[in-house]
Amino acid sequence: MEAAMTRMAEQLRPLLKRRPLMIGVHTGGAWIAERLHQQLDLKEPLGTLDISFYRDDFTRIGMNPQVRTSHLPVNVEDRHIILVDDVLHTGRTIRAALNEIFDYGRPASVMLACLIERDGRELPVEAQVVGEHMKLGKKEHIKLLGPDKLELRVQEVNG
User: Degrees (nearest 5) of the Cα angle 74, 75, 80?
Assistant: First the structure.
């Protein structure tokens, strides 16, 4: 995990001259974004998004009972955004996050940074910054535990 976070920080460092706004997707992405924000010593406040109401799969998974507030501390209009998530899998979480960001304004650019990129994409979404690439079976799922000590677990999904 630490090596993956270091790789991400090094990939992001050249972009800091653009004074980007970092936004983490709840929950795991917000934890990763908080760590990166500290490692990179960013001056802009960290933003967070809860994409629960923007998901397109409520009928399949049901509504997340732990809805959190989104917090964008500054205007996103014409800003360079670094969107951070823990795991990029189907691309649906990122689609929802982009929809929410654009409800707040039109950023100049959005760069996606993910701790883990795995196979199984359903939408044309690609991370520009990746900590680790993983191949998993169809019934395997990645779970990020945290926030104090971040830990990844691969779990078998039933059904």
Answer: 95
Q: Are 46 and 101 contacting, i.e. CB atoms less than 8 angstroms apart?
A: no
2-12 and 28-39 helices, crossing angle to 10°? 60
pLDDT digits (tens, 9 = 90+) for 38-81: 999 999 999 999 998 887 765 565 554 566 789 999 999 999 99
The count of other CB atoms within 10 Å of the CB of residue 15 is 17
Residue keyed to tokens 């649906």: 92
The CATH code belonging to domain 2-156 is 3.40.50.2020
pTM: 0.91
3 state DSSP class of 76: coil
pLDDT value at position 153? 87
H runs (alpha helix) in 22-158: 28-39, 58-61, 92-104
